[in-house]
Design brief:
alpha/beta, Aspartate Aminotransferase, domain 2, Aspartate Aminotransferase, domain 1, three-stranded antiparallel β-sheet
Amino acid sequence: MHRIPYGKQNITEEDIQTVVDVLRSDYLTQGPKIAEFEAAFAKYIGCKYAVAVSHGTAALHMAALSAGIQPGDKVITTPVTFVATANCIRFCDGEVIFSDIDPQTYILDIDKVRKLLKNSPAGTYKAIILVDFAGYPMDMEAFRDLADEFGLKIIEDAAHAPGGWFNDRSGIKQNCGNGRFADLAIFSFHPIKHIATGEGGMITTNDEKLYQCLRNLRTHGIQQIPEKEQFNHNVWYYEMQELGYNYRLTDIQAALGISQLNRAKKGLEKRKEIISVYKEAFSGAKFIIRQPGNIPGHAYHLYVVEVENRDGLIKHLRNKSIMAQVHYIPVHLMPYYQNLGWKKGDFPVAENYYKHCLSLPVYPTLTEKEQAYVIKNVKEFYE
């Protein structure tokens, strides 16, 4: 069997032609495709504003800056995520405060966060970064209530969850990242994500002031809006009004993103089909400690199972050209964060999860034959 990755981009001839069209156009960057992609993505998510940037980490950094994270500010987040979620706080010289996860869902345990907040003096924390881990949709409404009680901003890291949703208390469907409950949300367009642009990211919000702040930060703090200029108003004039960054997406990437977005719903449905096959195949298996439940709004970026002898299984699978992966090593166990005072034993639920977690291949072009091969080899290891 050929090599089977845990995730993989799906590039079609239509994608390729879309990119070629841009290469033959007048703009490779800062052209019309950026605004077109932003508008299409905002419509897909159901938010007012979307700002395209160079990658998901840039999106997190800009979201943290726009949320007003300053040196010394304490921001709560989960240890079970990619390091960029925590690093964006450090980029602002803020202090990362981890809290443990729910053992059933692998997302932040709201009861533990509430306890953390109640046991601290008022005003201790500035914000919270919530992660829709593996595509599991956070209950943003419940966290919004908690954030309002303690005066916190919310950033939603929805990199795993475009197309994901949950029902609010009124039974209304709320898309991940739609800005109804979070101040800002971010998405990633890395090749293994639902929508791939090579590298790329998006920030969504319903707040116009945050939207304008994001647009300035994306391009060196420079703007060319005559009514906002403080000095010269000539047609060639521009002003740098704050310290910003070069976090722009190119038109090449935006064109690819638009093409990918056009079939995002179809890709999500295929992911759900693949997950259902895994669930049925492993139902009742003694070696499975836990696999995802039936969550209607789950975006299934990853299919994560907890298994006995995870290390042995991953070695076995890789010997069979199945590139299963681990998501993630808890961030507080990284040497950088241990140097900041975190240590093994701080978050027992996250650490126990890490001992057993494994992500099996999930992507829209995974064939029935390939998935059957994966399932066969997982079962054979435990026989």
